[in-house]
């Protein structure tokens, strides 16, 4: 079985695959200090609760937080006796090209989203991932990652207002019924929610204009369901695009004989 780990700046998701089938997934907060032993206690408890036998033979990791990779490597080595594939490392092959400025780093989550988007929807895509940051990944006709956009995340924007202004409280995001807020909380929610709807629409329109071919827009990430209610922004919603991509990349490396 495969253990796939998608580590974002806020949350880390672990998923277990038996072949192409996802058997379970669990989410924990991202903390670079967490040790391999701590991960294992947490993971094995959840696996036992679901009656999943721990016959993990392979591990694949995508992490936007470089520091957590060390302990995840130890987890794979100590408890599953395997060397993990780490997306972004030279030994991890990708089934798509990356065409960006030389010497630049692309977030592994964006590469993984590109792979999954291409596998399911072909080329000419914009993948919008509502995570800690909101990323727009542009997938070319042939499935290559050719760049994109990084915008401050939805919760990050609300937190920034709260931290910078003494009278603005911590507010959870939700879709306000009206644009005109009648109290501080609904004013802030309106600014971020409707501001975000505008941001997504404008960025996608401009990407489509520059790209010069019709494109499909796919949404994913923790806060994507919130914007799914504004249906006209997206052609499709994928709950776990990054996980799907990790499974595909693992399979690709197996088929292409990567020995780890
Ligand atoms: N179901 C949810 N409801 C509300 N907020 C959520 C939900 N899931 C995730 N979030 C929040 O959305 C943001 C992005 O989450 P996530 O996609 O897990 O981020 P990342 O991949 O960057 O770690 C975080 O601020 C997180 O707290
Ligand atoms: C843009 C990101 C911070 C998004 O991370 P996330 O919101 O998933 O935690 C991450 O993809 C990253 O660190 N990227 C490196 C720079 C780049 O992709 O160009
Ligand atoms: K993201």
From TrEMBL:
<dbReference type="InterPro" id="IPR004619">
    <property type="entry name" value="Type_III_PanK"/>
</dbReference>
<comment type="similarity">
    <text>Belongs to the type III pantothenate kinase family.</text>
</comment>
<keyword id="KW-0547">Nucleotide-binding</keyword>
<dbReference type="GO" id="GO:0005737">
    <property type="term" value="C:cytoplasm"/>
</dbReference>
<feature type="binding site">
    <location>
        <begin position="107"/>
        <end position="110"/>
    </location>
    <ligand>
        <name>substrate</name>
    </ligand>
</feature>
<feature type="binding site">
    <location>
        <position position="129"/>
    </location>
    <ligand>
        <name>K(+)</name>
    </ligand>
</feature>
<dbReference type="GO" id="GO:0004594">
    <property type="term" value="F:pantothenate kinase activity"/>
</dbReference>
<dbReference type="GO" id="GO:0046872">
    <property type="term" value="F:metal ion binding"/>
</dbReference>
<keyword id="KW-0963">Cytoplasm</keyword>
<dbReference type="InterPro" id="IPR043129">
    <property type="entry name" value="ATPase_NBD"/>
</dbReference>
<dbReference type="Pfam" id="PF03309">
    <property type="entry name" value="Pan_kinase"/>
</dbReference>
<keyword id="KW-0808">Transferase</keyword>
<comment type="function">
    <text>Catalyzes the phosphorylation of pantothenate (Pan), the first step in CoA biosynthesis.</text>
</comment>
<feature type="binding site">
    <location>
        <position position="184"/>
    </location>
    <ligand>
        <name>substrate</name>
    </ligand>
</feature>
<keyword id="KW-0418">Kinase</keyword>
<feature type="binding site">
    <location>
        <position position="132"/>
    </location>
    <ligand>
        <name>ATP</name>
    </ligand>
</feature>
<keyword id="KW-0173">Coenzyme A biosynthesis</keyword>
<comment type="pathway">
    <text>Cofactor biosynthesis; coenzyme A biosynthesis; CoA from (R)-pantothenate: step 1/5.</text>
</comment>
<keyword id="KW-0630">Potassium</keyword>
<feature type="binding site">
    <location>
        <begin position="6"/>
        <end position="13"/>
    </location>
    <ligand>
        <name>ATP</name>
    </ligand>
</feature>
<keyword id="KW-0067">ATP-binding</keyword>
<protein>
    <recommendedName>
        <fullName>Type III pantothenate kinase</fullName>
        <ecNumber>2.7.1.33</ecNumber>
    </recommendedName>
</protein>
<keyword id="KW-0479">Metal-binding</keyword>
<feature type="active site" description="Proton acceptor">
    <location>
        <position position="109"/>
    </location>
</feature>
<dbReference type="GO" id="GO:0015937">
    <property type="term" value="P:coenzyme A biosynthetic process"/>
</dbReference>
<comment type="subunit">
    <text>Homodimer.</text>
</comment>
<dbReference type="GO" id="GO:0005524">
    <property type="term" value="F:ATP binding"/>
</dbReference>
């Amino acid at each position: 079985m495969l253990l796939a780990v998608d580590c974002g700046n806020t949350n880390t998701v672990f998923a277990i695959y038996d072949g192409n089938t996802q058997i379970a997934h669990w989410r924990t907060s991202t903390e670079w200090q967490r040790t391999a032993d701590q991960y294992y206690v947490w993971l094995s408890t959840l696996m036992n609760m679901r009656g999943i036998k721990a016959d993990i033979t392979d591990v694949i990791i995508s992490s936007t937080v470089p520091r957590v990779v060390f302990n995840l490597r130890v987890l794979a080595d100590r408890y599953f006796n395997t060397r993990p594939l780490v997306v972004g490392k030279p030994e991890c092959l990708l089934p798509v090209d990356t065409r960006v400025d030389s010497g630049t780093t692309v977030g592994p989550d964006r590469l993984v989203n590109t792979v999954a988007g291409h596998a399911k929807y072909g080329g000419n895509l914009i993948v919008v991932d509502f995570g800690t940051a909101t990323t727009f990944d542009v997938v070319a006709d042939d499935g290559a990652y050719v760049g994109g956009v990084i915008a401050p995340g939805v919760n990050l924007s609300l937190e920034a207002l709260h931290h910078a202004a003494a009278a603005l409280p911590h507010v959870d995001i939700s879709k306000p019924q009206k644009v005109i807020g009648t109290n501080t909380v609904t004013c802030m929610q309106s600014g971020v929610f409707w501001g975000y709807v505008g941001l997504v629409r404008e960025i996608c329109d401009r990407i489509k204009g520059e790209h010069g071919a019709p494109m499909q827009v796919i949404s994913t990430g923790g806060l994507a369901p919130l914007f799914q209610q504004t249906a006209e922004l997206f052609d499709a919603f994928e709950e776990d695009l990054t996980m799907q991509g990790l499974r595909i990349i693992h399979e690709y490396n197996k088929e292409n004989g990567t020995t780890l």
